[in-house]
Automatic annotation (TrEMBL):
Protein name as annotated: FAD-binding oxidoreductase
GO MF terms, alphabetically ordered: oxidoreductase activity
Domain FAD dependent oxidoreductase span(s) in chain numbering: 36-386
Keywords: Oxidoreductase
Gene Ontology terms: cellular component: cytoplasm
Pfam family, one: DAO
Keyword Oxidoreductase in record: yes
SUPFAM superfamilies per the UniProt record, alphabetical: FAD/NAD(P)-binding domain (SSF51905)
Top-level taxon of origin: Bacteria
Lineage: Bacteria, Pseudomonadati, Pseudomonadota, Alphaproteobacteria, Hyphomicrobiales
Amino acid sequence: MSEPHQSPISPGRSWYEDTCGERPRYPALDGSTRADVLIVGGGFTGLSAALHLARAGVDVVLCEAAWLGDGASGRNGGQFGTGQRLWPEEMEDRYGLDRARRLFAMAEDAKAGLRETMLREGIEADFRPGQISLAHKPRYVDEFRRHADAMAERFGYLNLRFMDRAETAERLGSPVYHAGLRDAGTGHLHPMKLVIGLGRAARRAGARLFEDTPIEALTRGPGGLWQARTARGTVSAARVLLATNAHGGRLEPASAAHVMPIRSFIAATEPLAEPARVLPGEEAADDSRFVVRYFRKSADGRLLFGGREAYTSASGDVAGQIGRQVASIWPHLADVRFTHAWGGSVAVTMPRMPYVAQPEPGLDVIAGFSGHGVMMTHWTGRLYAEGVTGSGETLDDLRGLEVPAFPGGTWLRAPLLFLAMTWYALRDRL
């Protein structure tokens, strides 16, 4: 019997990997080949683009350095969310009301589009409805109330409503938060099952998927074709999509300056003895901390809790640190046993909006979803495919966003991010 697979790019074995059923394998590239489009990266963005390109008859090759979903796509919190990473009124302040409404409508299309794809392709990913957001300080209560009003009045979203402290405590199973928002128009799912379903669907549609195939160099070749060199062959293509998110390295240095990887960690408890005492309505949850805590229950009654980020390579005692956060919300879980603890690299940008760019003709980059990627990755992959085929909408509203590079250059970006994030984490605690 073979050993369980451990992602070479993400620490810890996840509960998702142990509950996803059969995980299909795809071959490594062996020899050189040509395609209309090469996709680098086998997460949600790349798989969605491959699926929709192949469905449109485009010859597409996807190369993944590890296994499909070994990065954040197969290991994240599984929460859909509503809108972009920024609240619509924040986008309104930055971009004006008309553009904010378009960006919000895009995110609603993303939500519906992912559900449509799951239904069409027969992907069962344990979707369950409901999301609550929690105010961890009294000063956020009025902001939460205003947000619910703005969503209804200026953006036409009627699924979100404000909860006072008593209702928040009832829906959470704990009195520690000061207020909340309940969103009945979104939900949460099993991300690795979604990865597996998208991979199978893309393969059925005709996409050629290769695992264990890292791209070592990307250059322009004869006739203007892109040449992607691997250890066992070269892929030539007229167009390339870099969908590596936090794992792009130096493959395209100009884009790498705009996207910063940080690590986020999750732990899973054993099945709870009294699951109804925690999130009795089965919603997912997140809170207002800058270093956000996000959590939900699994289908078998475990608590999946993410709440620790790291800005260096060290991971430390993940379960112990998350256990203390869990006990601060639900003291009766102070002695609960954790069966899994894992992490992954999330790509963030300075404004927390996606980085969508074309650094050179025929070379596109989609990355930087800043922890809000379950549905937006799928939709941007689909919009990329429709842009290639000329069959639908485009990514123009995202391409036009101002996403500046992180300050500090190659050597100082990471230390400066560490200092900034440490400061914000300290503010969360004080």
